[in-house]
Amino acid sequence: MLPSILCSPSSSSTSLFPFNYFTLYSPSSSLTNLPSLTYKTTIKKSTHNHSTRVQAMIEKETPVTQRPYTFLRESDEGGAEGSSSNANSVRARFEKMIREVQDSVCTALEEVDGGGKFKEDVWSRPGGGGGISRVLQDGNVFEKAGVNVSVVYGVMPPEAYRAARPVDNGNVKPGPIPFFAAGVSSVLHPKNPFAPTVHFNYRYFETDAPNDAPGAPRQWWFGGGTDLTPAYIFEEDVKHFHSVQKGACDKFDASFYPRFKKWCDDYFYIKHRGERRGLGGIFFDDLNDYDQEMLLSFSTECANSVIPAYIPIVEKRKDTPFTDEHKAWQQLRRGRYVEFNLVYDRGTTFGLKTGGRIESILVSLPLTARWEYDHQPVEGSEEWKLLDACINPKEWLH
């Protein structure tokens, strides 16, 4: 998950970060996970091929006792916007948005749970920025719920950049690349097998010119998505979830929902199983071909749609009676969730490659999961219907 910042379709097909690529999610991101490190480089010359190798020395994040007003630097000399502390900058407004979303989602989840409380860890980075990780574990309703935000400055090696932005694979020279990444990433795992897991991740990412290419233009993009992963299908729940996503998309462009719904189905694909992780939602990444202000507003709308899309479903299903067999099936589906996040999620990959905060990167994983040898649900059963929908994605809105 989590890199909470970078999440994306070509990867886990999800990734914001670990924060899930942040995450940076995202993508599955997957929570998200933004790299929490600074790179110090030392140059060594090879006596064999005279090539230059860059070694990255990682400085880990530092715990802090109080949440700062902002994780942004006092100034950002290289930024096109000038001072990043300016309340009107995209960086500042995006940070404000993701922190407000974290607060509102955590408040809503605690109300639904009726007992569990989020544990909060705040951390900063020597290279700039920091994050807030919140986890509710073993509550009345939620087995594990993580909601993370990250606002990070740093320098990434080329292999990490390729994990974050594979579309540029052929155009990256060797050399460290300065970046800024911010995102919110969350994965929520309820106890009741009839209440679905949900993941969301929204992020903003910038890169400066590589150190060996002065004068190259700064690049920026938005990414994110919200997707549903139930163990059992209640069609009215799935339609409700998708209708809220469509409503958020339609406020900006009627083509967004069908485009991002398909992107989501394609991204959360477990190749070695031949099935999707869940029943989809929306997913997008590397978006920078629209007006920046529009994409900021769009990301905000999508992030604010999580509560109305998900909370009514959990309220409806959290107390549904279930058997040991229902619970075992839920655990098997969570095994699929683990497989996707660890094998394919771009956010998780990015976070691990950049030495990110491991608890944030892996917060997307469920507290419990199960793997049975050669398990095959009975054809026509409710379990089979779920698996069939994961193998053959459906159009839930007509």
UniProtKB/TrEMBL annotation:
Record keyword Transit peptide present: yes
Subcellular compartments: Plastid, Chloroplast
Gene Ontology CC entries for this record: chloroplast; cytoplasm
SUPFAM superfamilies: Coproporphyrinogen III oxidase
Gene3D superfamilies assigned: Coproporphyrinogen III oxidase, aerobic
UniProt-recorded Gene Ontology molecular function terms: coproporphyrinogen oxidase activity
Pathway where this protein functions: Porphyrin-containing compound metabolism; protoporphyrin-IX biosynthesis; protoporphyrinogen-IX from coproporphyrinogen-III (O2 route): step 1/1
Domain of life: Eukaryota
InterPro entries named in the record: Coprogen_oxidase_aer (IPR001260), Coprogen_oxidase_aer_sf (IPR036406), Coprogen_oxidase_CS (IPR018375)
Record-linked PROSITE patterns: COPROGEN_OXIDASE (PS01021)
Uppermost EC category: oxidoreductase
Main location group: plastid
Keyword terms: Chlorophyll biosynthesis, Chloroplast, Heme biosynthesis, Oxidoreductase, Plastid, Porphyrin biosynthesis, Transit peptide
GO biological process: chlorophyll biosynthetic process; protoporphyrinogen IX biosynthetic process
Catalyzed reactions per annotation: coproporphyrinogen III + O2 + 2 H(+) = protoporphyrinogen IX + 2 CO2 + 2 H2O
Enzyme Commission (EC) number: 1.3.3.3
Listed PANTHER family: COPROPORPHYRINOGEN III OXIDASE, MITOCHONDRIAL, OXYGEN-DEPENDENT COPROPORPHYRINOGEN-III OXIDASE, MITOCHONDRIAL
Family: Belongs to the aerobic coproporphyrinogen-III oxidase family.
Assembly with partners or alone: Homodimer.
Protein name stated in the entry: coproporphyrinogen oxidase
Organism of provenance: Capsicum annuum (Capsicum pepper)
Upper taxonomic lineage: Eukaryota, Viridiplantae, Streptophyta, Embryophyta, Tracheophyta
